[in-house]
Design goal:
InterPro entries: Aldolase_TIM, HMGL. This is Hydroxymethylglutaryl-CoA lyase. Keywords: Lyase, Metal-binding. With 108 residues, the chain is an alpha/beta fold. Helices cover 30% and strands 17% of the residues. The protein has a 4-stranded parallel sheet. The longest helix is centred in the N-terminal third of the chain and has 12 residues. 26% of the residues are buried.
Length: 108
């Protein structure tokens, strides 16, 4: 099997946004810095959405400032929910990929 066809992605963002509390910026960044050492192809590190909608992802830009990409080939993925989030994410040099969740559910 061609290894270039398989990409391993870790998503702390998905797990963190489901918590009933918010993890401090410094701890979020430290965790991402540690898992980058594992060699994941992509880390879904955070999102640029309204902090009213997803308070656990507030300050993703501050988290990004504390992430050290100098010793890793891991790409960082940010999730966005609208044009404003897309513009915010695109303005940040450390972000390599942007994801836009799409659902056919009326309640999502």
């Amino acid at each position: 099997m061609n290894n270039e066809l398989i990409k391993i992605t870790e998503s702390p963002r998905d797990a963190q946004q489901g918590l009933p509390f918010t993890i401090p910026v410094e701890q979020r960044a430290a965790y991402i810095n540690e898992i980058m050492k594992a060699g994941f192809d992509v880390i879904d590190f955070g999102s640029f959405v309204s902090p009213k909608a997803v308070p656990q992802m507030a300050d993703s830009e501050k988290v990004l400032e504390l992430i050290d990409k100098t010793q890793s080939n891991t790409k960082l993925l940010a999730i966005v929910g609208n044009t404003r989030g897309t513009q915010d994410a695109c303005s940040l040099e450390k972000i390599d990929m942007i994801g836009f969740p799409y659902s056919i559910s009326n309640t999502f």
